[in-house]
Amino acid sequence: MQTCVIFNPSARGEKAQAFCSRLNSRHPQFALRLTTAPGQARLLAAQAVREGFPTIVAAGGDGTAHEVVNGIADVPGGFAAARLGLLPLGTVNVFARELGLPADLTGAIQVLAAGRETTIDLGRVQFEAGGSPPLHFLQLAGAGMDSRAIALVSWKLKKKIGRLAYLVAGLAAAREAQPVITVECERQLSGELVLLGNGRYYAGSFAFFPGADLRDGLLDACVFPKAGWRSAARVAAGLLTGRVHRWSPAVRLRSSRFRLASASRVLLQLDGENTGELPATIRVLPKALRVIVP
């Protein structure tokens, strides 16, 4: 077997068993491994690298892909030994949209079978507290109201209404007092919400970073001086009209390195999952990851 598929059953709820049956019956060349707890996809990915699988597939959402790529990174030489594939089965699947993958399972499996690959940049985050090892991200990092909204998302509501659960959580986060975040790159500024994009898309198919490129060795950043109802409404108007630059009150930056810090407790989300607290230094690893694309 040349391909290890790491599947998060919670990504499809009651459809999980049907997915497993279909994959086992129609694609026996795939070694299927199921996660049973948060963080396990990372452990399974690292194990798959050590076992010599040249292709490791994240079958789930952005969180599953995030865990899998960090599992590959956990093994010395992992990025050279294994490439990443995706079966987008999650709620939003932002990174899969960035790559232009088919949303249907049949189309996504055909892409895997064709095996065409490209090499992309990865974000790398070093948290300064606790001496923890660095983490990597594929698509997006965010601190402030964005990461607070993720913390407030109701799992039960997410199962019922999908991505709209994030909107509900965002409205709740907008009612709270927002901490100030300091951003350092080639210049220094501060704001109440900071988003960093490796790719173009945020929260689905919204091209929040229209100039971003997965292969340019840079991260695109938006720093919002204020984050609240008014700013959220303006950003929403920009996204809906396709003129986010005109409506957005954010300062836009582009750099290969950022440092984020705050006097208050602020979480940092990576690919839609809160992973640690500021301060943190965020860099780009140019063309570090091989990934299967259409």
Report on the architecture of this protein.
The chain is globular. It is built from 11 helices and 18 strands. The longest helix has 13 residues. The mean pLDDT is 87. It has 294 residues and is an alpha+beta fold. It folds into 2 domains: 113 residues, 3-Layer(aba) Sandwich (Rossmann fold), CATH 3.40.50.10330; 165 residues, Tumour Suppressor Smad4 (Sandwich). The two termini are 22 Å apart. The protein has a 6-stranded antiparallel beta sheet with strand order 6-5-18-15-8-9, covered by helices on one side.
What is the CATH level 1 assignment of the largest domain? Mainly Beta
Instruction: Provide the CATH architecture of the largest domain.
Output: Sandwich
CATH topology of the largest domain: Tumour Suppressor Smad4
What does the radius of gyration come to?
19 Å
Largest sheet: 6 strands, antiparallel
SSE string, helices as H and strands as E: EHEHEHHEHHEEEHHHEEEEEEHHEEEEE
Strand segment tally:
18
**Helicity level:** 25-40%
Shape: globular
Discrete helix count: 11
**Integer tally of domains:** 2
End-to-end distance: 22 Å
Strand content: 25-35%
Low-confidence spans: pLDDT under 50, at least 5 residues? Answer: none
Q: Which class of secondary structure composition applies to the elements?
A: alpha+beta
**Average pLDDT score:** 87
Physical arrangement of strands within the biggest beta sheet = 6-5-18-15-8-9
